[in-house]
């Protein structure tokens, strides 16, 4: 499995079990420091742009536009606290 595939796998887990994101090991460094955020433009938005990264090594998945997980609270655009992380690409 490539790093990219591991990040996609981790994203899938986080999306389906957002409450367990804090227990997910980072695909790069294994630290349990992964964060999932959805950036939305209005409080009622149920789609947004994902940011999914590790606070320890500052690697993460590419941003992705899509549906928020059920009951997930999005972050209004401009209020997000997303570090400048390195995106892991398919190559
Ligand atoms: Zn990491």
Describe, in plain words, how this protein is organized in 3D.
The chain has 91 residues and is an alpha/beta fold. It has one domain. It is 15% helix and 31% strand. It is built from one helix and five strands. It has one helix spanning 3-16, and strands at 34-40, 47-54, 59-67, 75-76, 86-87. The protein has a five-stranded mixed β-sheet, with helices on one face. A hairpin with a 4-residue loop joins β2 and β3 (59-67). The longest helix is centred in the first third of the chain and has 14 residues, at 3-16. The radius of gyration is 12 Å and the shape is globular. It starts with a helix and ends with a strand. The structure holds zinc ion.
Q: In short, what is this structure?
A:
The protein is α/β, with parallel strands linked by helices. The protein has one helix and five strands. Zinc ion (ZN) binds next to loops.
Helix and strand sequence: HEEEEE
- Side by side, the strands of the main sheet go 4-1-2-3-5
Helix content: 10-25%
- Count of helical stretches: 1
Shape verdict: globular
- What Rg is obtained from the alpha carbons, in whole angstroms? 12 Å
Work out the number of β strands.
5
Give the rounded overall mean pLDDT.
Answer: 97
End-to-end Cα distance, whole Å, is 12 Å
Number of domains: 1
Overall SS class: alpha/beta
